[in-house]
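User: structure tokens for this one?
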Amino acid sequence: MERNGWMGVCCEPNMVFVVCNQFPLIAIRYNNSRTGTKHIDDILGKYKAAWKIKGMIAQDGLLVDFWRPKQDDSAPAMDISWSAWASAYMNSWNSAQVKELFPSQSLGSFTRLSPTCINPNTAPIASATRSLVASEGLDPCDPQTHQQALEKLSKESQPPVIPFTKHAFGYVAQWLSELGEEETLNGPLNYADQNLHPTWEQGGLYYPCHDQSSNK
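Assistant:
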């Protein structure tokens, strides 16, 4: 971390991911608890100061995906996935900021399919929903807003789909759980139980592979 100006450690060549660096930060705190040291206090201060200069948070509240040391630039978030995953772990040491960002990060990220079911939106739908909320004041979770977002997207040219897909559903569920957003969390969990065909296996619920990335 020190070699990269306290921005974090590269877990891939020339790529410092915000989410990946939550794990060593938590590990340092664990080690401090075990050894009675306080190294993490100094490290977190330098880490937060470095990212304050470079900019970890975009205008929409999402965290940048990663920073490239050689180019000294950051890649904006492509969807909610890594912001949710990073925030779930960052909540352990930076809870006030994580909770402050939740309303803007979650805006447009969910559609209420029924009174008990909520489904995370894909990145294009979330972006279109945010646009509709800003321009027309629509309810971001309303199914009708979701339909209007789909219609809006159908009239626009879309960028090519990136072949690498993230485990957005799981990341979002973990994020909601860690932040104590129980009412919202129950929506995705109910959706999974009703639509992803879980079965009991070795004392727990097993959800089989589901290749469809979003609800149509």
